[in-house]
Amino acid sequence: MSVLQVSNVSKAFKGRLVLNDVTFSVDSGEILGFIGPNGAGKTTAIKVILGLLRADSGKVSIFGRDVEKEHSLALKSVGAIIESPELYSYLSGYDNLMQYARIYGIGEDRVLECAETVGLRDRIKDKVSKYSLGMRQRLGVAQAIMHKPGLLILDEPTNGLDPNGILDLRATLRSVAAEGTAVMVSSHLLSELEHICNSVCIIERGVVVSRRRLDPEQLAEQPLTYVFTVNDSASAANILGNAGFSGNIISPESLSAVSLKEDIPKAVSLLVSAGISVYSLVERKFSIEDAYLQATGVAGKNNEGGGLL
Question: Does 309 fall in a domain?
């Protein structure tokens, strides 16, 4: 079921188009990585989704409710952190959470449960002014999930988190999604999103350039990248290029080729028949970074002149 639906949203500031006909959705139980370069429009899109900015055109709906026309009802089931959590530094972590809990009629048991979930149970009575950046981020996540939202939106949630904090966040988001919550995470740490997300939406210059699932069964049907170690990568590149394989020379003794798994024996046979020594062959798993490079064209720019063809 679609929890968040963003339909043909555009937004301009002083004549500059920041969002251009943006359309995507997030389903129940899905963890969507929302990525793009600096200035791509990620934070603007999130602010439009949350009703903090009004779109010039298009529509955002949450559980079928129009964010602009039914603002309070639409956002009632949303938890979010935008850029950094808003906290009262002079209060304890516990008092901060209780302030929020009273708005939703939530009891102390749930407050302490959320503090435990984000790893702050032992420090929850300390003043927030004594918290590190990572601890503040954890407290913000606890606040965002306290009312068990149907949609959770996090903008750079790993800011300031140490390795243990990042592991805890992964577990928290997976647990929340397993209960049916739709999760949208914006981050620059592509390698970290790899461990969290099962889908990705890539935005560049205000335009959605790619929207894809990262489920293992779907990735299995897509071409993969294989890295060959050979005695002559330039000759190997010509042979594979002439046979219709695409890829890049990595070094004098290694090259990559993009292929379906069932076509790899043909590639190896072609190389061996041509007298190329194949020392090793390694499958490189498709990653969020690959999706990003493909969608934005960075891969092509970085490897200009180094392709097989």
Answer: no
The Cα–Cα gap between 261 and 283 comes to 9
| Region for residue 206 given its phi and psi (left: phi exceeds 0; alpha: psi -120 to 50; beta: otherwise) | left
Pick from 250, 291, 292, 245: nearest CA to 267: 245
Domain extent, residue 246, equals: 219-302
Most confident of 100-104, 126-130, 280-284: 126-130
| φ, ψ for residue 180, nearest 5 deg | 105, 0
Is 78:150 a contact under the CB 8 Å cutoff? yes
Length of the chain in residues, anyone? 309
Q: Which of 180, 214, 248 finishes a domain? A: 214
Residues 6+ apart with CB under 8 A from 264: 226, 281
225 and 179 within one domain: no
Taking Cα atoms as reference points, which of 53, 75, 51, 80 lies closest to residue 63? 75
Q: Based on the fold, state whether residues 66 and 136 are members of the same structural domain.
A: yes
CA dihedral 253, 259, 262, 264 (to 10 degrees): -10
Sheet holding 57-62, edge to edge: 16-27, 2-13, 57-62, 65-66
In tens, the pLDDT along 251-296 reads 999 998 888 888 999 999 999 999 999 999 998 766 677 677 766 6
Residue 265 shares a structural domain with residue 201: no
Beta partners for residue 186, in sequence order: 34, 155
Q: Are 164 and 119 in contact (CB under 8 A)?
A: yes
- For the four alpha carbons of 103, 109, 111 and 117, in that order, the dihedral sign comes to negative
DSSP state of 26: E
159 shares its domain with 242: no
**Distance between CA 146 and CA 132 in Å, rounded?**
21
pTM: 0.76
Q: Determine the Cα–Cα distance for residues 278 and 231; give it in Å rounded to an integer.
A: 7
Asked if residue 307 is part of any domain, the answer here is no
